[in-house]
Specification:
The structure is a homodimer. By secondary structure, chain A is mainly α. Chain A has a domain at 7-74: Zinc/RING finger domain, C3HC4 (zinc finger) (Herpes Virus-1, 2-Layer Sandwich), CATH 3.30.40.10. The first copy, chain A, is built from 8 helices and 4 strands; from the N terminus they run H-E-E-H-E-H-H-H-H-H-H-E. In chain A, strands 1-2 form a two-stranded antiparallel sheet. The N and C termini of chain A lie far apart (101 Å). At the A-B interface, helix 2, strand 3, helix 3, helix 7 and helix 8 of A face helix 2, strand 3, helix 3, helix 7 and helix 8 of B. Chains A, B: A zinc finger (RING-CH-type) spans 6-75. Chains A, B: Pathway: Protein modification; protein ubiquitination. Chains A, B: GO terms for molecular function: GTPase binding; ubiquitin protein ligase activity; zinc ion binding. Chains A, B: One of its GO terms (cellular component) is mitochondrial outer membrane.
Chain lengths: 278, 278
């Protein structure tokens, strides 16, 4: 070994703890990167701690010398076959579990939809008849058909036919003079066109659609019993109740929105009170 | 009206469209705030549009004069009783729906937990016996008892007894020389204490707990059938299978974590290859 390299070896010092050979003869040294001079040598133990800090618990993270940017060559003892298999299984489970958990959530919502569908069938057609229908039906048809009930209700609820009726109403309102007698002020022109009202915050309108759709069969059954008690068939009575409810609610909604529209249109901004000026 | 005020009225101009009285004799004027001079007067119609813009669809938002900061006095036609009731109902529904939707979600998870509990009872105790037990049980007890099954499984899964065993192992490993023969290298001291490994990302560990807990009864049943087929009682067989599975899995896990620990402890950082230096 040339004298110069030997000399360098003898007066090396660790760039982590600054100790030299005299301070600790037994310590193991390593030159992990391309650096020369005072940052060439470092204790193996000191460097390990330094790398631990840099990795912050992620033992597979790569670490490089902050000065010459050379990546440290970190090697581990070979994995035994058992540990290799366990490691593989561990990583597979970690990868699969988020998807399995998502599957559980979807399964939970699906199962609730099936149950809701079954309850709705019994509610609309009648308890006993509903059970008979479902017992006779093909299980596969049930597992697909029942959850479509809430889906259909939600999609149906998303159809905003009232807004369509409102647009027609405003478009042809001046031709609707005859309606003026029933709904006063229905046909007269508005002094100004108010700004389009903000639609409800997304989450509120989404929850309104969900709740409105899921409670609809119950309301249809109640309205059916109240208004069409003379109709014997549960199904027909509930369907009539549903149609009546949609129509009545729609009429109220159209009227309400039109009144809000008119209210906005007839909004007034007053003069600032005189006396406050003096 | 004093001459000066009259004169001001005559040469007023709208600070939105800059039109004066001559440009539009019929336009309605308003002085909505404390401003004087050229920004005192404005057309009612122009100010309405300006306010619409400021409100961006939120018709109840308050608007103030950008200069004197006086709030505009915006008044609406009085609400009719029907519209008042409809408005009230509309706002109530908007407030209640988010909570109702949250209730539906919780109900969905609860209902899935009840179903999972029932399926697990039938799986562990046996299909027919499970049904008998549940038919004889008090419905209220079922509606509370069944969902606690998945809850108990999840809580049980969160007990990390393997880590406790590991800590004991590392604490008294040097006294465990006798184990050295079974698990080579189990007792010998480690060259360094590796950094604590990062726990799994929260969502991964949460999903692992959820999936591990919910799949446990199925695994316990299978292990029970494989290892304790001589045991007649379904329940006992499944319990034995569960205990065996937990013990075996725990042993593997402790061994695996200890091997990872040792692997980290015997990690080495090599010298940077010489030839690359020249």
């Amino acid at each position: 070994m040339p004298d110069q390299a030997l000399q360098q070896m003898l007066d090396r010092s660790c760039w982590v703890c600054f100790a030299t050979d005299e301070d600790d003869r037994t310590a193991e040294w390593v030159r992990p990167c391309r650096c020369r001079g005072s940052t060439k040598w470092v204790h193996q133990a000191c460097l390990q701690r330094w790398v631990d800090e840099k990795q912050r618990g992620n033992s597979t993270a790569r670490v490089a010398c902050p000065q010459c940017n050379a990546e440290y060559l970190i090697v581990f003892p070979k994995l035994g076959p058992v540990v290799y298999v366990l490691d593989l299984a561990d990583r597979l489970i970690s990868k699969a579990c988020p998807f399995a958990a998502a599957g559980i959530m979807v399964g939970s919502i699906y199962w609730t939809a099936v149950t809701y569908g079954a309850v709705t069938v019994m509610q609309v057609v009648g308890h006993k008849e509903g059970l008979d229908v479902m017992e006779r039906a093909d299980p596969l048809f049930l597992l697909i058909g029942l959850p479509t009930i809430p889906v259909m209700l939600i999609l149906g609820k998303m159809i905003r036919w009232e807004d369509y009726v409102l647009r027609l109403w405003r478009k042809y309102s001046n031709k609707l003079q005859i309606l003026n007698s029933i709904f006063p002020g229905i046909g007269c022109p508005v002094p100004r066109i108010p700004a389009e009202a903000n639609p409800l915050a997304d989450h509120v309108s989404a929850t309104r659609i969900l709740c409105g759709a899921l409670v609809f069969p119950t309301i249809a059954t109640i309205v059916g019993k109240l208004m069409f008690s003379s109709v014997n068939s549960n199904l027909q009575r509930t369907i009539l109740g549903g149609i009546a409810f949609v129509a009545i609610k729609g009429a109220f909604k159209v009227y309400f929105k039109q009144q809000q529209y008119l209210r906005q249109a007839h909004r007034k901004i007053l003069n600032y009170p005189e006396q406050e000026e003096a």
